[in-house]
Structures are given as structure tokens and as C-alpha cells.
């Protein structure tokens, strides 16, 4: 290993920001499950890691369990409660959250499929998002719900839609010394159906060949009010298929319409060849999986 | 170097560690607890699985400094906490033939323990999901799943 790494553990957000500003070569780290693989392989040699795990203000998942109050509000269509996910909340915490399973099933499914239980218990959604891999499962799930990010840095805090956060593989709009403090997910409202499909060869401990998410919020008469189709490994970053969303919005959901959405999503997908899968196969599977995922969401029944 | 203090199998320890070390290295080399093994070193095989604050983690990816103030359980602690006897889970592994070469076993046992601590009555599918990150090249997994289910049943009695 190269020169000895410094591992810093601030306990407040402002202390963390100040370490990132003042310590040369410092980078933030949450679960470290990617960073430590990189360090071991020699691909990555940061001078200092600023751990965010000891900062209490980043550890909340609120609310965490369903309440009757929420159920009542959701029935009446005035639900104002979404979920707030702190920057170092783990995939395992989301997997174990009854709130997430019931109200944000696609995020729950996306998080439950990452790595192994040992990795999910440590790896964070914040880390998954800031790594900005095109295959980031949690991001593909969160894009469905119009999640926004609260970023805290030397100049204070700002809010950015998740869909504007990614620039390219491993590249984000995070400024130097800026930290992902919180992920805000608004309540999707009643009559919402969602599903995430991780397309893999094996059933576990696998990166997706393709990730496909769908979220449909229907009006009382069954018309599609809001459609969100998200894709992983179909562009240089987790992305939404706005073309497919436009096909669906404002219309009655039918098998033909859903099939058309799949065709449009496939036509616009920026797929490419990698050792894990060929571009033509990915495009073909987007066509197949978009309708399948909408079906699995339950919106058609 | 940094000095860290945490609990291992119930006993407090204070050790000097290099800041780029992982928890596995501290357990193996500083504390001479060799149950957790390095298989892949990249969080893919599960041979290094230990329990930290009640949940299973891959100790090869867990920064040593992050153990500060936490409670770590390793396979060695099971017998210690059970009056010198094998636990029901360990006995079930022996009885079901879930151990062959033994390299994966401490990790398997700790993943299974973490599962049973949270879910005393898992289904076979839940056992498979909990152990998906533990690779065994000998047994073909069948006996391991059987052993965890048998132990769960025994422990519920």
C-alpha cells in the first residue's frame, strides 16, 4: 500500500465539511464497501478518508414504520408524508423498513437486491448515488419518486433533483467539500403502483445487466396522471425515459399502450456493449421489461 | 496509526491499527481470532463475515477505525458465550454435514446467527437470501440450509 491513509471520523456535518476543505486529498466515505475494494486493488489511493458514519444528523430514516395516521391520510388522498433518508442510511435499513416496503416498493426492491446482506448492512444509498455508477440500483428506484437531494457544503445547503445530479459515470454535480446530507422522497399520492426489476444472470450478489423501474399514479377515473420509467445501464448514468413517460401520461392504461411505452423506451435507450452484456440485447430487454414491470406494479389490474 | 477501543465477544479491547486496515486484519493479526477468513478480500465470498452491532458485515470491507465503540461478535465467541459448549446452530452444522473443508464455515455460521437473531423462524427462502453472500465450494449448500432450519427449530423449543 502507498503512504498511510488518514481515516477521520467527524461527529458533525460542519466538522466533516471543514476536513474536506482543509485536508489535502480527502474524500468523503460512508459504508466504504466500494472504496475499500478500490484501495485493495490499488486502483484508488486517497490520502485521507472522511467517514460520515459517526454523524448522527445523517443516520435517520423517517418515518420508519407505517402509522394509522398516514394510512388515513393516504386513503383521503391528502397524504403529505413521504420519506427522509439520511446520507448514511444503509440498504439493509431500507430492506428492513416496513414503511419503505409498503409505500415505496420499487426503492425497497432496488435496495434489497444490492450485493449480499453483509454488504447491504454497511453500504449506503448516499454512497450508491454519489458513486454515480450507471447501474446504481437505489438511484434507479428513487428516480421513480422524484427524489431530491440535500447537499451540504461550505456555502450552506442546497436542494437538487436526483434526475439532475448525475453528469456521467462516476461524475456528479457534487461540489468540492460538499456532502449528500439527505434524500427527500415526496409522497406519491394514492393509486400509485411501482415496481423495480433488476435483470441479472444470478439471483443474488450480482450487478444488473439492466435495471428497469416503473411508477404510475392514476387519477380516480383510471387515467395515468404521473408516469415514471427509470432505467439503469441504459445511459452513462441512471436515467428516466421521458419519451416512454409521455406515451403513458394522460391516457387510460391498456396492454397496447404499455407495449408502446416499451418500444419507445427501447428506441431511445442509450445502450452500449460491455463485457456483462451486449447493447442489442439490452435494447431488446428494455422493450420486453418495461411492459413487464408495469404489469408487476399492479397498475393494469 | 490510531488507537481504537471496541468490544470483541463481550470483552473490551484496545489496539493500535494502521488507518487503512480493515476489521478482518485487526481480528486476524492483532487479536489472533482466525475464525473469520480472507477469501476474496472484496466482499463477494462471505468467509470474513462477523457481526457488528447486531448485523452481519463483511469484515474485509469494514474499515478498522469504524469499529471504534462498537460490539463485534466472531465465531470464537459463540462457544465462550455458551459455557464452553457448541451452540445449537453449530451442533446442527455438524449433525447435518454442513461442514466439509470448513473454510467458509465461520462466515456461514455468523450470517446464519445474524439471521436467527432477527428472525427465529425463517423460511428456506429467507435462509438462502441471508446466506447468498456466503460462498461454499464443497457442500452444494443443501446441508447448510438444512442445518440453519434445523437449528432454528431446535432453538424455538
Secondary structure layout plus pairing:
The complex is a heterodimer of chains A (301) and B (157).
Chain A: E1 6-8, H1 13-22, E2 26-29, H2 35-41, E3 48-51, E4 61-62, H3 68-76, E5 83-86, H4 91-95, H5 98-103, H6 105-112, H7 117-120, H8 125-131, H9 137-143, E6 148-153, E7 156-161, E8 166-168, E9 171-172, E10 179-185, E11 192-199, E12 210-218, E13 224-232, E14 239-240, H10 242-248, H11 255-268, H12 279-297
Parallel strand pairs in A: 1-3, 2-3
Antiparallel strand pairs in A: 4-5, 5-10, 6-7, 6-10, 8-9, 11-12, 12-13, 13-14
Chain B: E1 2-8, E2 11-17, H1 23-30, E3 49-52, E4 55-58, E5 71-73, H2 76-80, H3 88-96, H4 105-118, H5 124-130, H6 142-156
Parallel strand pairs in B: 1-5
Antiparallel strand pairs in B: 1-2, 3-4, 3-5
Helix pairs in contact in B: 3-6
Q: Would you give an account of this structure?
A:
Chain A is of the alpha+beta class. Helices cover 34% and strands 23% of the residues of chain A. The longest helix of chain A is centred in the C-terminal third of the chain and has 19 residues. Chain A is globular and about 60 Å long. About 3% of the residues of chain A have low confidence. With 157 residues, chain B is of the alpha+beta class. Chain B has two domains: 73 residues, Beta-grasp domain (Ubiquitin-like (UB roll)), CATH 3.10.20; 77 residues, [2Fe-2S]-binding domain (DNA polymerase, domain 1, Orthogonal Bundle). Chain B has a five-stranded mixed β-sheet, with helices on both faces. In chain B, helix 3 crosses helix 6. The termini of chain B are far apart. At the A-B interface, helix 2 and helix 7 of A face strand 4 and helix 4 of B.
Amino acid at each position: 500500500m502507498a503512504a498511510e491513509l488518514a481515516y477521520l471520523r467527524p461527529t458533525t456535518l460542519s466538522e466533516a465539511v471543514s476536513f474536506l476543505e482543509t485536508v489535502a486529498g480527502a474524500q468523503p466515505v460512508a459504508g466504504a464497501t466500494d472504496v475499500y475494494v478500490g484501495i485493495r486493488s490499488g486502483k484508488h489511493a486517497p490520502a485521507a478518508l472522511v467517514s460520515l458514519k459517526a454523524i448522527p444528523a445523517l443516520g435517520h430514516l423517517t418515518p420508519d414504520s407505517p402509522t394509522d395516521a398516514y394510512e388515513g391520510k393516504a386513503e383521503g388522498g391528502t397524504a403529505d408524508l413521504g420519506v427522509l433518508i439520511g446520507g448514511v442510511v444503509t440498504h439493509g435499513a431500507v430492506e428492513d423498513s416496513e414503511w419503505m416496503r409498503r409505500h415505496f416498493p420499487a426503492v425497497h426492491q432496488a435496495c434489497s437486491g444490492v450485493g449480499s446482506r453483509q454488504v447491504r448492512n454497511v453500504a449506503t444509498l448516499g454512497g450508491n448515488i454519489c458513486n454515480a455508477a450507471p447501474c446504481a440500483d437505489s438511484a434507479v428506484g428513487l428516480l421513480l419518486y422524484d427524489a431530491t437531494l440535500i447537499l451540504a457544503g461550505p456555502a450552506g445547503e442546497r436542494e437538487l433533483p436526483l434526475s439532475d445530479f448525475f453528469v456521467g459515470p462516476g461524475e456528479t454535480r457534487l461540489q468540492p467539500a460538499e456532502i449528500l446530507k439527505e434524500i427527500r422522497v415526496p409522497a406519491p399520492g394514492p393509486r400509485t403502483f411501482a415496481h423495480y426489476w433488476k435483470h441479472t444472470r444470478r439471483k443474488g450478489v450480482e450487478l444488473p445487466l439492466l435495471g428497469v423501474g416503473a411508477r404510475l399514479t392514476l387519477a380516480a377515473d383510471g387515467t395515468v396522471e404521473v408516469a415514471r420509467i427509470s432505467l439503469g445501464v441504459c445511459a452513462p448514468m441512471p436515467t428516466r425515459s421521458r419519451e416512454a413517460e409521455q406515451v403513458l401520461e394522460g391516457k387510460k392504461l391498456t396492454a397496447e399502450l404499455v407495449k408502446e411505452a416499451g418500444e419507445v423506451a427501447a428506441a431511445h435507450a442509450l445502450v452500449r456493449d460491455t463485457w456483462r452484456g451486449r447493447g442489442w440485447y439490452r435494447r431488446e430487454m428494455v422493450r420486453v421489461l418495461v411492459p413487464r414491470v408495469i404489469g408487476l406494479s399492479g397498475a393494469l389490474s | 496509526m490510531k488507537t481504537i477501543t471496541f468490544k470483541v465477544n463481550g470483552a473490551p479491547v484496545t489496539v493500535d491499527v494502521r488507518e487503512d486496515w480493515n476489521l478482518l486484519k485487526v481480528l486476524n493479526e492483532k487479536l489472533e481470532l482466525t475464525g473469520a477468513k480472507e477469501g476474496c478480500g472484496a466482499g463477494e465470498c462471505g468467509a470474513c463475515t462477523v457481526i457488528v452491532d447486531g448485523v452481519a458485515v463483511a469484515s474485509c470491507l469494514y474499515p478498522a477505525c469504524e469499529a471504534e465503540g462498537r460490539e463485534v461478535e466472531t465465531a470464537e465467541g459463540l462457544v465462550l458465550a455458551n459455557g464452553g459448549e457448541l451452540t445449537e446452530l453449530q451442533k446442527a452444522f455438524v449433525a447435518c454435514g454442513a461442514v466439509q473443508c470448513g473454510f467458509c464455515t465461520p462466515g456461514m455460521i455468523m450470517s446464519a446467527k445474524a439471521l436467527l437473531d432477527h428472525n427465529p423462524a425463517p423460511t428456506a427462502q429467507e435462509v438462502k437470501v441471508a446466506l447468498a453472500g456466503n460462498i461454499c465450494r464443497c457442500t452444494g449448500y443443501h446441508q447448510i440450509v438444512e442445518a440453519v432450519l434445523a437449528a432454528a427449530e431446535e432453538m424455538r423449543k
